[in-house]
Design a protein that fits this description.
369 residues; alpha/beta
């Protein structure tokens, strides 16, 4: 085998590699994430993939929303005719940090096997995702239409309304094309950087991490199916602070009044447009109300009292003005039933919330006689 032969083989292989990359970038096979072994070889996940310790949680964070949804149990097949489908969206409190899937709001409600008077089984799906950003929720809402929800429960908290938080979620920052679509099609009032993919980013080389994540997600399906584990449950964790700073502005709220950028209520209106008529209930999720040091100034680490009180007033008034269904459960759960954050509940706290939401769902189902 002489040097000329080896050189020719190398040049041809290199040329084919370049050609394949160019063709890949031109075709831009964006639907690749919809191909999944979940719900085929492996059971579908009960919540969207998220995790920083794959070796122990059999889970990982990735940025391909199509692949995330394809791995979820909601993607198991066509919606049955006898199913009343409820989808729960929101932040890490909905996803269920430190909670097993069956201990989350969606898991608890689904296991109670509710039914509508017209004979449909009520199924509840958890499509919450960690990070506080309404824009992240808008992306999820837009992707949900193919799953034909009958009701959407959208859990929110003040921090997720802030303009400064909207593009910080990695799932948003790495999907600005999707956000541009929302801005264009639904007039979502967001100022976006130019985040459109370059030609290089569309090549096989440019997408190597995304493709590797897709493969890794499939491989973790084996252990997820076998164990049902999708996050690490530490024996000890740092509890959410009960003793607080004597500061009525930190982290970033400027008294005496909330600014427009602190409460982007217009993004809720955008969500209603994106849902295209599917009923949405806005649920102000429970927060930790501290009884500790400086609790007369702050409710918790996130919220000075004056800021959170104004937020509740604004959200209630806007809901009444626009006819939104609004449920305010902010003070439902005692401080003892929060874990490592002012919005993360214990199993007991989740049951308190589920009891309230269940009563509202049963009342709502009464009209389907």
């Amino acid at each position: 085998m002489n040097a000329n032969f080896l050189r020719n083989v190398f040049l041809k292989a290199f040329g084919l590699f370049i050609l394949f990359n160019l063709v890949w970038a031109l075709l831009n096979p964006s639907g690749l994430g919809k191909l999944s072994l979940y719900n085929v070889l492996f059971k579908g996940r009960e919540r969207l993939p998220f995790g920083e310790n794959p070796a122990e949680s059999y889970n990982l964070s990735l940025y391909n929303l199509d692949a995330m949804l394809a791995s979820h149990q909601i993607n198991a097949g066509k919606k049955p005719d006898d199913e009343f489908r409820v989808i729960v969206i929101g932040d890490s409190s909905v996803w269920g940090t430190l909670l097993h899937p069956e201990e989350t709001l969606a898991g608890l409600l689904d296991n109670r096997q509710l039914a509508s008077p017209d004979g449909r089984a009520v199924r509840i799906y958890n499509l919450g995702y960690p990070t506080l950003s309404l824009t992240k929720d808008l992306m999820v809402l837009d992707a949900l239409r193919v799953y034909e929800p009958d009701l959407i429960l959208w859990l929110v908290t003040l921090e997720s309304f802030r303009e400064s938080e909207q593009l910080l979620s990695p799932i948003v920052a790495n999907n600005l094309d999707r956000v541009h679509h929302l801005v264009t099609e639904f007039d979502v009032p967001l100022k976006l950087p130019d985040g459109r993919e370059t030609f290089w980013q569309r090549t096989l080389i440019g997408q190597r991490r995304s493709l590797a994540d897709l493969v890794r997600l499939q491989t973790y399906g084996v252990m997820w199916s076998a164990t049902g584990i999708d996050q690490v449950y530490p024996e000890e964790f740092t509890p959410a602070a009960r003793d607080l700073k004597a500061d009525d502005s930190d982290p970033g709220f400027m008294p005496p009044n909330l600014r427009a950028e602190d409460v982007r209520l217009d993004l809720i209106d955008s969500g209603m447009k994106i849902a295209r008529g599917t009923p949405i209930w806005i649920i102000n999720e429970p927060i930790l109300i501290s009884k500790g040091l400086n609790s007369n100034i702050r409710y918790n680490f996130y919220y000075p009292r004056w800021a959170y009180d104004q937020y509740r007033t604004l959200l209630e008034e806007e809901s009444r003005l626009r006819g939104w269904v609004y449920l305010d459960y902010w003070n439902l759960v005692p401080q003892e039933e929060f874990t490592n954050s002012a919005i993360h509940l214990t199993p007991v706290g989740e049951r308190l919330l589920a009891d309230q939401v269940q009563a509202e769902i049963i009342n709502y189902l009464g009209k389907f006689k």
